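ok so for the tutorial part 2 we go from a plain amino acid sequence to predicted structure tokens. step 1 is just haveing the sequence, like this:
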Amino acid sequence: MPKRYQIELTKEELERTKIPLNHILVKMLHSSEGAKSKGGVVVGFLVDDTFENDDGHAASLAEVYGEVFRVPDKLFFDPDDPKSLDVDVDMELQVGDTVWFDIMEAKNSCEFLCGNTLFKSIPYYACYVAKRTREMKPVPDEGMIKSIKTESIICLNGYVLLSPINLPQISPLDVISEDQIDKTRGIIAFIGNAPKAYLRDEYSHIEDLKVGDEVILDKKTPIVWLERTVALARFDNDNLYFVVPRRKISMVINR
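step 2 — the prediction. this is what the tokens look like for a chain of 255 residues:
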């Protein structure tokens, strides 16, 4: 199999780097080599190997999250410029955030190796959601000083995270439909700011979506998983979500 291409940088070179337009630089937090499930089972493989498609075991082990190392001051949106983002959104990532991004960008991005630390250049449009941890001022707790940490979830680029809905069983004897999801709908688990504009004038979205809404998706909306296997999920314990652009939601049905 072909080897992944990595550029080696010194610490000084890394600090001087400038990122491309509408990109972020991510420090990877884990490796697929020797990756273990939560039960301790080794399921990883050599990280130097690349794969031609995003199906199966290789895709399940793709490194789809990391720590934000560098961000642009702002994002570029201009309907008359081919370098523009597809959506007009604010720059919501901060250095230190943990960000989840598209599986193909995770596997095909430009990679930089500084010492033993791997960095990837990721297009901002490929970023789905981020976690931000803040440490509050220490407070007294039964005679001891205790720090309080808060965690916030930031959905990016107008993406929405949906909890899957399983297909109903045809009969009590039906075991085929048990783990199959309904690809036409989902329940909103996390949602962020809506895009202010789109590159294509025909795109639009529902404004007042909220967590808990059961929604119907546009025809042929692809199911893109934030993480593909419970054993390696890190975003929200054992809960798996799929990601859709807000504009792909065509109807709310539980209000």
